[in-house]
What we know:
Elements: E1 7-12, H1 27-41, E2 46-51, H2 59-63, H3 70-94, E3 99-103, E4 112-113, H4 116-124, E5 128-132, H5 142-152, E6 157-162, E7 167-168, E8 180-181, E9 183-185, H6 186-191, H7 199-207, E10 212-216, H8 222-227, E11 234-237
Parallel strand pairs: 1-2, 1-6, 2-5, 3-4, 3-5, 6-10, 9-11
Antiparallel strand pairs: 7-8, 10-11
Helix pairs in contact: 1-3, 5-7
Amino acid sequence: MALQYKRILLKLGGESLAGEGGSGIDPRRAEAIAQNVTKVIDLGIEMAIVIGAGNLWRGQQNGLELGMERVSADHMGMLATVMNSLALQDAFERLGYPTRVMTGISVPQVAEPYIQRRAMRHFEKGRIVIFGAGTGNPYFTTDTAASLRAMEIKAEALIKATKVDAVYDSDPKLNKDAKPFEKLTYIDALNRGIKVMDSTAMAMCMDNDLPIHVINVWSEDALAKVVLGEKIGTQISA
């Protein structure tokens, strides 16, 4: 089958790297994700990744509820995403895939600063690019960072990797009769208050006609099926 996309951005939650306790970084989980992703890269896909920080720090829960200043809590979250990005970079490079981490805040000792033209050059050289530190600004989630970076690098789709295999009309953990959506429009997703991405990120994708695919990150060959145009998960588009 022909590839439906040439360049994609994969949005991962920080929890995808967490160990059995649900927090921290488990190098074995990072390697498992890397193995899934490299199957797609071997098909000829150019890959960018944005990862969250939920396994290390959640500003809303860990900071704001205890009275922490929002800007400080968000900056801590940005630094946590850099740690996750470095863990993923290590996993990819142990498998033999050259990878660069680019960050929205300056940490030159461990990663490159994000420069759009430099990121495009990395793709030309066949490198995986991981974007850390969100947008570099407080008050913006890593979902919004994923949408923004996807637009800047001219990605053809945003893949939101979750622990469930699709978007459902209700919580499948609470309702055994919950039904998955095969397709949703951006407006439907916004009106239904779908929590798979925040509204700012969703609106940005809608304004720029960037399709979103929601899949289970641990489902075997799910990424490959998306890029080959097979029906899997939920597609949110115009």
